[in-house]
UniProtKB/TrEMBL annotation:
[2Fe-2S] cluster binds at residues 79, 84, 120, 124. Transmembrane segments: none annotated. GO terms for molecular function: 2 iron, 2 sulfur cluster binding; metal ion binding; oxidoreductase activity. Its EC number is 1.6.5.11. Its cofactor is [2Fe-2S] cluster. Binds 1 [2Fe-2S] cluster. Keywords: 2Fe-2S, Iron, Iron-sulfur, Metal-binding, Oxidoreductase. It comes from candidate division TA06 bacterium. This is NADH-quinone oxidoreductase subunit NuoE. It comes from the Bacteria. InterPro entries: NADP_DH_HndA-like, NuoE-like, NuoE_dom, NuoE_N, Thioredoxin-like_sf. The lineage of its organism: Bacteria, Bacteria division TA06. The keyword Transcription does not apply. Belongs to the complex I 24 kDa subunit family.
Amino acid sequence: MDTKNALSVEEIIQKHSNEKGTLIPILQEIQESFGYISKDAIETISRLTNYAESDIYGVATFYSQFKLEEPGLHNIKICQGTACHVNGADTVKDVIFEELKLIDYGTTDDKKFTVEHVACLGCCSLAPVMMIDGVVYGKLTPDKIRKILKSF
């Protein structure tokens, strides 16, 4: 972690120092600021608070909201809800993985995309759907998915 980020993490910790149950708010704010919670940030939290690194990792891995790896430039969410599932969510996943050369959910080697699955995006009438950077793409076909990905 560079000095600028270390100071920012320290400032976040200091801001919460007089509160009870500070770990989750600290983790949330660090993730909001940096997009994820780095190993260096966890070490800094441990050093400046009474939390052991193992306890911090325990909390950060328990809650799915926390990311321990740096996300890609673009975030792709693949809907796995019932409507999407019966209308081809597996095909959406397969095409995305093929196009981005991914074996599993996560971030591409070039850090351009992070792909994750979500339980439901609430766009059932457009199934199957994916969301990229907050924009929903529906009624997906393999060709449509490829065209969308190429636009990025």
